[in-house]
Structure formats: C-alpha cells, structure tokens
Amino acid sequence: MKTEPAHQHPALKPLHFDTVVNVSDFVKRYKKEVAVNGVDLEIRKGEIYGLIGPDGAGKSSLMKAIAGVLTYDGGAVEVFGTRVDSERAAERIKPKIGFLPQGLGLNLYPELSIEENIDFFAHLRLVPDKDVGERKARLLAMTRLDRFRDRPMKNLSGGMKQKLGLICTLIHEPELAILDEPTTGVDPVSRRDFWSILAELLEENGMTALVSTAYMDEAERFHRLSFLSGGKVLVSGTPTEVRALVPGSIVTFEATPQLEAIDRLKASFRQVESLGPLLHVFVDSIDRSEATSQIEAALGDLTHSSFRVDEPELEDVFVALLLLKTDQKEAFSSVSASAVGHDRDGFAIEAQGLIRDFGSFRAVDRVSFQVKQGEIFGLLGANGAGKTTVIKMLNGILLPTGGTGLVAGAEMRTASGTIKQRIGYMSQAFSLYLDLTVEENIRLFAGIYGLDKRSMINRYQWIVTMAGLSGYESSLTSRLPMGVRQRLALGCALVHSPRVLFLDEPTSGVDPIGRRHFWDILSRLAREEGVAMLVTTHYMSEAEHCDNLALMYAGRIVAEGSPADMKRHIEQEAGLLFEVITDQPSQALVRLQQAGFHGAALFGTRLHVFCRDPLRDKACACQALEDSGVRVISVNERPLSLEDVFVYRVMALERIEMSAKQEAAA
Amino acid sequence: MISRVGIVPETARLWVVRLFAMTRKELLQLGRDVPLLLFLIYSFSLSVYVSGAGIAMQLTNASLLVHDGDHSESSRELIHRFREPYFRFDGEVQDPDDGLRQLDQGTAMVLLDIPPRFHESIHGREPVSVQLQVDTTNAPQGLSAAAYAARIVGRFSFDLALSRLGAASDGNMRMPMVDSAHRVWFNQDQDETWFQSISHILRMITLFAFLLPAAALVREKEHGTVEQLLVSPVTPLQIMLSKVLAMTLVILAATVLATVSVLKPVFGVPIRGSAVLFLLLTALYSFTTAGLGLFAATITKNQAQVGMVALLVISPMLLLSGITTPFGAMPSWVQTLMALSPLRYYIDITYGILLKGIGLDLLWDSVLAMALLGGTMFGLGMWRFRRQFA
Fold first, then answer.
1. Closest chain A C-alpha to B148 CA, distance in angstroms
2. How far is CA A367 from CA A262, A342, A391, B132, in A?
3. Which residues of B fall within a CB distance of 8 Å from A431?
C-alpha cells in the first residue's frame, strides 16, 4: 500500500486504476549525502506530471531511477506494474520508456545532421523502417524542423536542439516519456512551442509524461505536480489543489518611498517583493476588500497607487509553503549603505547606434538605449538575438563595428581598460572558483581589482554582511547551497564598489526564497546606493524585477519600456488575457484556434486566450466551445506576464519575417 | 609632470598586485587537488628511485648456454671466462638444436658452441673457431652481448698466443702491442643510476611543465571562469603569466624534492656546479615548456583533450631531445629537428652543471638557444590566447 502524504488534498483518490508509475518512500544517497529522502509519487496514464524544484532538490535522481538507469537505496519504484529493483527488471521496462537527460542536446551527436540523429535513435530502438519515415515526417513537421533536415546538430539554436532531443526521445513511441529539465536555457518562445508539441503528442499517442523544471512559472503547465525541496516532497496535487492549500491574494501597487514601504509591510506580511516600481504582497485573505484594507493599515501615512488584487501564482504558494515549513523569515538584514555618497544623476550606460558585424552577418544592428544610475534595466531576447554581443561590447571585450557607447563615464572604443575597472560582472554561479573557499574567492577578486589592504578588509566585511555569508567564510564554494553561491558571486562582482553591474541570468536554478532574497539585495543596491544594473535573461520572472526593459530580436531592439508599459501595449494590441477552464481542454484548444483565436495556448488543463474586445470575444469564444460540445466551467481575466509579452512580440515578428521570405521566394 | 610620476608607480603596483592575486589562486587550487599533488610527489620521488635503480642498459646476467663438443681443459677454460655480472652460465645443452630452441623461446640469450677437437686443434697449432649465436631482439643488449663475447674470445686466443710465445722466449714478452687505457671522467664509477635518475627527472619536469599550466587554463575554459576574468581588469598576459609562475614554482620545489630525497642520499649524485644556477635554468626551461602547454590549451576544449595533445607533443620531444639516444647517432635531418627541442639544450645544461660542474661561461650558447626557443613558444601561446578571447 502506498501511503499518501498528510498534506495532500483529500479529494485525491488514493489509488488509481491506470497508474503508470508508483514510487513509495524513495531514498537515494550519494556517499553520505542524502539526495532524495522518502518521496512518494503516483503518475497516471495520459497526464503530464511535473517535478518542480530548484537545482539539487533531487529531481534528476528520482527521474533516473524511474527510467531504470540509477540504483537507489530505499523504498520501491514500480513502472508499468514492474518493480524496478534489478538490471533485468529495468531492461523489461526500458522499451516502453523514452528518457531525455538534462542538458541541451547532451543525448545528441553534434556532428550528425538532424535526420541522421533521428535515424540513429530509430535504429537503436529497432523501429521498423516503414514506420521511421512516417513518424519522422510527422514529428519534423510538428516541430517545424523539416526545413533543416541536413543541418548538423551543433549548428542548431538551443530551442531547436531541445526539439530534436524530444523527437529522438519519442521516435519509438514510448508509453512514458521522462524529460529532465527540457526547458532550461531555452528562450520563452521555444519553451512555449515545446509545451504545445508535448501536449499534442500526448493527446495523439496516449502517452504519459514526467517532466521536471526549475522554472516555477511552468508549474501551471502540468496536470499534476510535486514540488521538491531538499530531497523531499513539499506539496503535490493538481495546480488547483495546491493553490487551495494556501488561500490568499496578491496585491500589487506602487508606494513611495518604496524602501520605507517595504520595511513597514515586512513587519506584517511574510512575502513582500519589489518588482521595479511595483510592490507585490501576499495577503492571507481571499476577500479583496479585506486584503486591501490590511495593506492600507500596514502602509499607514505613505502615499500609494490604486491596488490590483489577483489570485496568487503557484510560485507565491510555493514560497508561502516553504516559509511555513522552514519557519524562515523572508525579511533579511538590510544592507548598510556605504559611507560614500554617490551621485545619482546622469546615465551609467549610454549606447548610441551600436553595430557589430561578424563577417557578413550583422549580429547587432543600431542598438541604442540608456540606463540611469540606480536603474535596473533588462535586456531580453532569445538565444542569438544579440544580447551577449551587446554585453561584450559594453564590457570592453569586443570592439563595435559602428556606434558609440559610454559605460560608467568611459568611452568603450578607447577606454576599455577603464570600463573593466569600473564595472562588476556576474554570470551564473559557475564563474566562481569552486575549489576555493568563500574568503579566498573574495580575496582573489579584491586582488584582481587592486584593492589595498584597508579597503579590502572593509569590503570583505561588507560583502559577508550583505550576502549573509557569515559562518560560511572558510567553506569550499562547491559545498555551498546554490542560493548562497549566487550571493557570493554577487559579492565578488561588487568587491570594488562598481557603479555599474552586469548580470547574466543571475538566479537560474536557485530556489524561490533564495531568488527573492537575491532580488531584495539587488533592488536595495539600486535604490540605496544608486548602482545601475543591466540584466540579461530569458527567465521572465527575473525580467519582472526590472525598471525598464528592451526586447531584442535579430540584432535589433524591437520593444522598449517599463514592464507595465509593455504589458499595456500588448493589451491595446491583442486585448486582455483570459483563462478558460473547460472539461475537455485539448478539444477546446483546437476549437478555439479554428474560431480564429490564434494566440490560444494550453496550460495544463487551462487555456489562455487573448480577447481584443473582452465582452464580444469572450461570448464568441464560449459560443464556439459550447457548439462543439465542450463545457465551459469558468472564464477569468488573468494578469499578463512578461512571458506573454515576449512570446506575443517575437511570434508577431517571426510571422512578418516568414511572410517576407515567402514573398521573396514567390 | 608630478602627476605622471604618481601614476606610473600606481599602475605598476596594481599590475603586481593582480599578478600576485592570480598566482596565489593557482597555488591554492593546486593545493586542493590532492590526487594531482600525490601524483606529482610520487613522480619526483619514488618514481625517480625506481627508474634509477631499476632500468639498466648495461649488459647484466645475460643467460648463456653452452654446447661443449670437446669437454676438454681448454673448453672449460674458455667457458669460465664468461663471467658475472655480464653473463650467467645457465648450463650445457647436449644438442645445439636444443640450444637454438631455447633462444627462440627467449629463455637464453647467448649460445656458445665449442666444436669437438677444440683442445687438440689449439695445441696442434691449427686455427679453430667457436660459434656464438646471440638473440638480438633487444638490439642494444644483444649487440653488447656479442661484443663482450667477441672480446672474451679474442682475449682468450691472445693469452693463448702469449703463453705459447712466452714458452718460446723464457717468459719475456717482447712483441709490439698497443694497450688502450681509459680514464673515465665525470662519472668515475660509471654508475648508470646517475644518468637514468637524472634523465627521469628531466622527463618529469617536461611533462609537468607542459601539463600543469595547460590543465589549469583549460579548466578555466571548461568552468567558464575565464569569462569572469576577461571582464575584469586582468590582462591575458597576467592570466597566462600567473599560471606559468605558479607551476614553475611547484616544479622547482619538486626538483628540489627529487634532489634531496633521491638523487643525493640514494644514488649519491654529486652536484658539482652551482645549484642556484641549475634551479634558475630549470625555471627558464619550465617557463618555455609552459608556453607550449598554454598554446595547447588554447586549441583544446577540455582536460582530456589537453592530456592527449600532451602525449602527442611530449613523446617526440623526449625522443628528439637525446634523452634516450645520443645526438650523434641520429640521421642528419633528425639532428636538425632536434635543434628545435628546448629539452636538448636543457639536457646539456643539466649534465653540464650537475656532473661536469661547468658554468655559464661554457653553457651560454645552450642557454641562449633555450631562451630564444622558449620566448617564441610563449609568444605563440599568448598570441593564440589573445586571439581566442579578446
């Protein structure tokens, strides 16, 4: 008998007749470290089951054990009714399983073309030749890779690699697909593509999928999910069930002065986040007026804008649960402002018509933008859009072909040495020396930036307090939790008190609490010390924290403005976003697309639809659904996310480009 | 004017501070890599001992079989002259074919065949020959065995002739002859362990001087830390120089370790020249080899590839250096190639200082050649590194 975790929703049936995977009390150790500690899991036929959690939560270990490629130390794993406890048992289930390991295109062969890769996997899985041709054609068409059949895998973009990986995993039509972080490092458009392809395949083949992700905002994509943290299941169930565990509302508003408002709110609320000029507060009450009056009481005499109240996102729920469980306070010691007064006037970064050519290819095309001191600026775009090239030019390691740029008061064409001395740079945690201790890493960077002894001691103390590193000083960096490592990397980038900070996907793979802590520090640095920040990311939750954004596409900036402006523009162009819940989601999606709602997308069992004219379109959509026998359960307006903005913009541009190409061909 | 005076020392100070911070980091990282450290210590201690004590190129205990067709006083006399340590008498065979079979099997190395009526022929003053069959599969050993055996037989017949003459002229030797008298220099006991252990250390220095900085650089590429360095004020020269400095220090320490733990106490190798000069030139040598290693690191993607390139580069370098085969014995085109190997000059320098006790006055040309070659290699590595990242 499988025992259900106590916190699971009572409505969930304890055992289902078409269980595909049943895991109970699973334990996996690596030497002395316990990676997974007593996990229960039940996956049913035909569903997309999600494993969500930060890096190191135990997702990969669990998935590998289910795929029969990793031994485990305790509990039971049952797949298709076979107990996977020996090599022989594992071999029996493997033909029915497709496993996509973590890492972009790691299971593929870089020198082989798309077609050769697929053929290899088909032959490996002994797929009959006549089926290979037909399946290949269908999958290539679905993933829109058919135009690139002969292109070697190493020349594909991240999103394309991941789609090819998916095809190779599914070419033998497995009954269960196990996909380990398939969307990590993939841009939002390809990510959305990936999800719709997966949903379509599931529907067509009656397949079941187990998918892991470190992106909390993808939780909505799953039929059912488990949130893993530190090798344990924190919560599991359908998104609706999970939401019901922590009832509350999210109140969004502006208040001035922001820092004062944050301090006051933190006294009463556990989750207070600043997103650019906005504040984002989780209130325990589901009653809207009750929630806003609680906020008003906490704010006291501070001026504030009107309130917007929304249903909490799953991420807010996870954070609430994590906070409840660990009894951790989200409020951290605030950073003491350094003694030196900084000027906040003028621009930290001024890019004027930047151009960069690589041979005949123009990677960056007349890019201009400005970042003020104290501003957090986000540069968004898919892989290959030109973000990295812009950053390299601004950092002084790549000369522009044309245009000028001023970074921290230095001209990038002539004073790249001065720029390097004045900026801080932080990429993903891996750019620290893992075999050095925390102290040694800080000292190294202090030496690199030429700090003298006295200022080094001062900055060292400042970094340890700011990043909450006390107690970790002499630990090896490789032993630190991801969140702490990230803060250390930030500390090292700030060792010389730079006025401009470059951040490249700074919080990917960090748990939600760690990420909020990190952004807390960043916004304080911007607000209190006037440090200007340029963030590049395709992780849209990070983009929400920026004051201003620029979206890059094919080397150009195609949209610019604050997150709120960008959302407003989309709402003017495409309408409001509605979430439709029906009894037959995939049927409904097809129906809506036929009825002319091209932007309709499936999120787990819910549909997202843009309605230009809310009243008329909503009615029209409901009518179309009811006509085809789909029962509409509810239709609610949803706040736009930046991911919606990104996807909408890029898709529109891709359509223009495609039609231009077709015209040119005709 | 005044401000300029103030600026120059400040930039110089920063330059040194940065280089020092980076070098310290390299040493710390190497210190954390326990398996590598153990391998390094083993290579410069126990492994030196093993190669010095274990590898002998001199002929020792070559297995000798005899087919004695005569069984006479004279045949026994001849057999007795094949002595240890060069030959080991492994018994007689009744049938020469049996002896040949043992040569085939590799259980014997030399087969001496003494014909019947050997004694009779000698005393009957007729010429007689003995047959010597030698397995020269291992050419140097086989050739020495044949040469030694020829000398023994020659000496036997010479002595025989002398005694015959002596009998005729009352023991008074009055015949013209040239006696070769050797005076062995630098290694008077002709102790082979000196050469073997020193050349092993040179091999290890070459290997580590190539591999350590190359692996350190490629590891930064693998982990992405090099990006972080490039956006900092550290220059490519400082990145490369810090690795070479750190690894040169480590190699010097290891060389000292090998000298005080094995060379002097175990094998009694004298250090006749200046130890300081030797260490300085060792530093110069590892610096040049490190340049080559860094070049390799710029054309590879990961540590496994660096290992393979090291294998490809170092084995011809060792072969062409004259460490295993003497320079003069090579064909002339190989000799020309050898002039390009810095190891060749370093060998001359090492034996010159350690065994001959000579100084820069005689070694200056080797030092100059090594410095020029090394400078070129280091420059090439720098150039590739800059091109790749900057």
1. 59
2. 35, 28, 11, 88
3. 223-225, 227-228
